[in-house]
Amino acid sequence: MSELTGRIIKNYNGYYYVETPDNKLYTCKVKGKLKKEKFSLVTGDIVSFEQVGDEGMIGAIMPRKNFLQRPLMANIDLVIVAFACANPDFSFLLADKLLALAEWARIPAVICLNKRELAPQGLVESCRAIYEKIGYKVFDISALQGQGVAELKALLPGKISVFAGPSGVGKSTTLNAIDNSLTLVTGAVSEKIGRGRHTTRFAQLLPFAGGYVADTPGFGNLNLEELELGNLASEFREFADYAAQCRFNSCTHTHEPDCGVKAAVERGDIAASRYSSYLTMLEEIKASKERKGRR
Ligand SMILES: Nc1nc2c(ncn2[C@@H]2O[C@H](COP(=O)(O)OP(=O)(O)O)[C@@H](O)[C@H]2O)c(=O)[nH]1
Ligand SMILES: [Mg+2]
Ligand SMILES: [Zn+2]
Description:
Elements: E1 2-12, E2 15-19, E3 25-30, H1 32-36, E4 46-52, E5 55-61, E6 67-68, E7 73-74, E8 78-84, H2 92-104, E9 109-114, H3 123-133, E10 138-140, H4 149-153, E11 160-164, H5 171-178, E12 204-208, E13 211-215, H6 239-243, H7 260-267, H8 272-294
Parallel strand pairs: 3-5, 8-9, 8-11, 9-10, 11-13
Antiparallel strand pairs: 1-2, 1-4, 2-3, 4-5, 6-7, 12-13
Bound molecules: guanosine-5'-diphosphate, magnesium ion and zinc ion.
Guanosine-5'-diphosphate binds near residues 114 and 200.
């Protein structure tokens, strides 16, 4: 028996699959002590365990660099916010939600627009204009036709990257195109509901180029619970410079006079779609807090 350290790459049926730096995989359970502390381990966690053969008992978890709730994962280097240009349609609101969650967790993010051959006129260009201006790189690709995949792939070596986005946008297809030794199951988009079937059922880290990539299941609705704790405006990175010009320190950039953010939206310095996402998310967070207050 010896004490080893490794990373949880998959959590399935009550077992944690832990990979050590020498690329060995151990099937682990959690020690009673850790269980009692009600600390839940997630994919990406670095743990130490007592090894017996190819099995282990996890006794401790190392401090996390960061943590994401959706997808549930720790110690991520890059979030790839994944959408399709069409089928299912791109959503500015959903993209801004995912970006805000990545900001909140302090994880760098880029945007990947798949199915570019289906893109409505101007969509890729306007996404570039809006997001690259504020420092989120936009990759337009066709996983099916192999276009643009090399540029995306170049981001990944040595990192733990996670694809986060709705189901049916082509996350699994993109990963298969990045690494043709992967054979992730992909799903046909249902004509009826316009969404992909849930073919990827849990988050798992797949070894790639000295790091890992994570395929994740899509999500139905995205709740913004962690954002309730802070100030939503600070997760919209381009607001900061203009918020400094608001008359009130406590300005929420909604109804207040002399608001630097609203002035920037009017001038076109802040994208109208971003401001609109901010207002919608603010309302959703407020409604969720009120629901909790009543309980
Ligand atoms: N037209 C087109 N379809 C694609 C592309 N990439 C994936 N798809 C299709 O989109 C559907 C959903 O893909 P999948 O990878 O399962 O999406 P996921 O749910 O995000 O993992 C499948 O039918 C794919 O064949 C693409 O670049 N162009
Ligand atoms: Mg999938
Ligand atoms: Zn303001």
